[in-house]
Amino acid sequence: MDLEKIAEKIKEAKAKAKKRNFTQSVEASINFRNVNMQTTDKLDLQVLLPKGRGKDIEIGVFAEGEMNLNAKKFTKYVFNRADIERLAKNRREMRKIANKCYFFLAQADLMPIIGRNLGVVLGPRGKMPIPVPPTADLSQLVSRLKNTVRIRSKKNPTVNVPIGTENMDEKDLAENLMAVIDAIEKKIPMEKIESIYVKTTMGPAVKVM
After folding, report:
1. Fewest beta carbons less than 10 Å away: which of 47, 90, 164, 209?
2. What topology is assigned to 3-54+148-207 in CATH?
3. What are the φ and ψ backbone dihedral angles of 24, each rounded to 5 degrees?
4. Average pLDDT in the 50-68 region?
């Protein structure tokens, strides 16, 4: 796919979108044909956007001790072992947290207790924590995840992926979309992609291919 042509289509989508009193995301809808999204062609990918997401996202961290203290430098959503047990009894609060945080990280030895207590909330959302070894650079992990998107298929042969925001340059957004397509192509061949559209949050869709 030609990067310049993708950038032109993104520019068109941005031009067609009415101005809102908030910064809209730019999203790609990728439609497939002759696929089974629940079995052989199931997608559950994390893609680092080379030009970033264009806005901040929340990251949740489950940790004890020094890692817990360190995590508080990067996010307000930090939970220790006692919090995990408390949230297990308050699923309503845990659901709210799960909806606010795009990704979760967890101290590796807390993964079993998280699975037992919070898996029922996090699992169906595809938000089970990424285990973190004690020696890992937490700031680097958080920084990387803040520029990462998840591609997760459901029943329909379509995935919707944020590729940035409307105030980003069209070429940067095009590079992000190419990164998404490249990641998908490693799992599903290009000939099974029927069409790709781009749009802002509230704007009309524009066909890219």
Report:
1. 90
2. Ribulose 1,5 Bisphosphate Carboxylase/Oxygenase (3.30.190)
3. -80, 150
4. 96
